[in-house]
Each structure stands twice: as structure tokens, then as C-alpha cells.
Amino acid sequence: MVVSSAPGKVYLFGEHAVVYGEPAVPCAIERRARVTVEERDDDRIRVHAEDLSINGFTVEYGDGADEAPDVDVAESLVQAGIGYIDAAVEQARDAADAPDAGFDVTVESEIPLGAGLGSSAAVTVAGIDAGTRELGVELPTEEVAERAYRAELEVQDGEASRADTFCSATGGAVRVEGDDCRAIEAPELPFVIGFDGGAGDTGQLVAGVRALREEYGFAADTVESIGDIVRFGEEVLAEGDVAELGQLMDFNHGLLEALGVSSRSLDQMVWAARDAGALGAKLTGAGGGGCIVALDPTEATRTALEYTQGCETAFRAGLDTDGVRVEAE
Ligand code: PMV
After folding, report:
1. pTM of the full predicted structure?
2. Which whole-number Å values give the CA distances from 121 to 104, 117, 235, in the listed order?
3. Terminal alpha carbon distance of the chain
4. What is the CA(320)–ligand 1 centre distance, in A?
5. What is the spatial distance between Cα 167 and Cα 182, in angstroms, rounded to a whole number?
6. Full set of structural domains in the chain with CATH
7. Distances, alpha carbon 263 to alpha carbons 31, 94, 227, 267, in Å
8. How far is the centre of ligand 1, averaged over its atoms, from the C-alpha of 16 (Å)?
């Protein structure tokens, strides 16, 4: 039996602009998905999910395409829950050259599902790591990241960025530009996350920014300005000036708001964080709903968010310098 875990992520800077070739900086957060894998005597897969924001479920299936999972929750939830596990299992079988390996898989996640915090990437990364180790193969982190990216591509019909899987595999702060992902230096970052309980439609939000950018030169300039913030922010990160990073986050949020991807609940949470004395706050990910990330070493922002209209849950989660790691073997 092997247990591996991997972190979720927030965007410190650069979402949306990254779609047009600008750099972005996602950061791993101290919220993890843990995946336990135990090889079976047969070629079947049994998945037990503890905490995917829904009541736990167990599903067992074989290779027969006509074999419907026998479970008591909505089919779509099961598909969402096991799609990533299934793709991770395929990658582990492939990496270990063991196409018929069967597994019992247990998933426990501290990362809210579908909230833009990279929960699916964390589950996929931890699943590939645990699955390959259980088969006696130890992959370098870069290969876990590459295989997790391929798994996400498959599940998401060819629509996946490398940011989430790379960040989850390596931990820490990451610089993404096109297909180029690399770890970068960062100080300790006291993240506080507020979640409105919802999620935006990423495809629709990206299309909205694209349309604005094509229609107005100043919208294209706004996207470029986000890229400038990221380039400047990288230097501030290297210097370790957390207060200035907060200012840049505020600026970045303003530009995302101008591009139409914020929402009332996200703005309410951003302003609650600022009023509580956060060093900075912005939406993270696609926007339209979902999460904000603030910087605050004190308890003030989290407490304020808990009383903010539109905020369903708020929690602290510092920058996690650890990426994928083995918890038990
Ligand atoms: O909401 P998330 O974490 O999936 O992030 C989306 C980030 C975008 O830049 C809006 C889209 C993308 O594919 O990079």
C-alpha cells in the first residue's frame, strides 16, 4: 500500500492573460488531496472517495465497457469523481508497464471541488505517484507532472493547461508561460482563501475576455498590463517583499474586474479582505464566482470573510513548498 499526497493551488498573478502568452504565477497551497493505492489480485479498480465535497461513495468496475458502476449517487458526480482516478490509473499502469494491474484506491481531499483550487490536478498527481510506487516504479517529479497533464487532457477533452498539474507536482511558486513551467523563488506567503460556494464557467469567461480583447485595443492593453504585473511581481517575489506583492494583487484584481471576470460575491470578499487589513486580495482562477485569495499573516481577514455576505467558507492555507510526497509506504 502507498499513500501519496499533492497540494492544490491559487493564482498569485496572471490568470486569463496566460491564455494569450503572458506569464502567470500559480502557487501551491497547504491544502492536499491524499490518495491511497493498494494493488489487487485481479485487474479491477475499486475507488472509494471520502471527501469530494459530496458524501463519500465507493465504486468498483472492471474493463468491460458495458459494466456500469453500481453506486447510489448521481452518475455525473461519479463520472467527475472517478474520471481523474481512472486516467491516473492508466498512466500508472503505462509507466510501470503493467497494463493489467488492478487497484483499490481511496481519495481524501481537503480541497473544495470545482472551486478553481486545482483539486482534480492534486488528485491526479497524487494518484499517479501512489499508483506507480505501488507497482515498484519511482518517477521523477517532472514525469509525474507530465503524465498528470496528459491525464487531465484526456478527461477534459484536450482542454487543460499545464499550470495546475505542474504546480501540484512541484509545490511552491511556479512561473508558467505557454508550455514552459518552472519553479521560482518565493518567500512565505500567508494566503487566506474565501470561497463563495459557486464556480464560474471557465470556457464562457475566457471567451468573454477574448471578445473584449478583439473589440477594444484598450482591453488588449489590459491583458498586456496583467503580463507586466506578473513580470514585475516575479522580481518582488525574489526580493521577498510581501507587502508589495499585496499591492500588485490588488492591481491585478482591478484589471480582471475591468475584463469582466469578477462577480459581486468575489468583489464583496475582496473588499472585506482589504477592509480587514489584508496586504492585498484578488480573485483566483477563471472568476465569475469561486474563490478569492488574500495575503494576511493575522487572523483578521479569515474572520472578516466568515461574516461576509456571499462567502460560504474561508480558510488559511500558506504557500506549500512541498509538492507531491509519499505519506506512507
Ligand atoms: O479556474 P482555474 O483554476 O481552472 O484557472 C483558469 C485559468 C484561466 O487562465 C482563466 C484559463 C486557463 O486555461 O489558463
Report:
1. 0.92
2. 20, 9, 27
3. 6
4. 20
5. 9
6. 2-185 (3.30.230.10), 191-316 (3.30.70.890)
7. 25, 42, 22, 6
8. 6
Side-chain-side CA neighbours of 306 within 13 Å: the count stands at: 7
CB atoms within 10 A of CB 101: 19
Instruction: Provide the 8-state DSSP code for 158.
Output: T
Q: What is the mean pLDDT, run by run of 10 residues, along the chain of 329 residues?
A: 98 97 97 96 87 55 52 55 89 96 92 87 97 98 97 87 95 96 96 94 95 98 98 97 98 98 98 98 96 98 97 96 97
Q: Decide: 18 in ligand 1 pocket, CB within 6 A.
A: yes
Amino acid of residue 88: A
Q: In angstroms, what is the span from residue 206 Cα to ligand 1's centroid?
A: 8
Q: Which one of 15, 167, 206 would you pick to mutate in the ligand 1 pocket, going by the greatest count of ligand atoms within 8 A of its CB?
A: 15
Q: How far apart are CA 116 and CA 31, in angstroms?
A: 13
Question: Kindly report the CA angle at 213 between 207 and 215, in degrees rounded to 5?
Answer: 105
Ligand 1 neighbourhood includes 162 CB (under 6 angstroms): no
- Is-contact 38 50, C-beta < 8 A? no
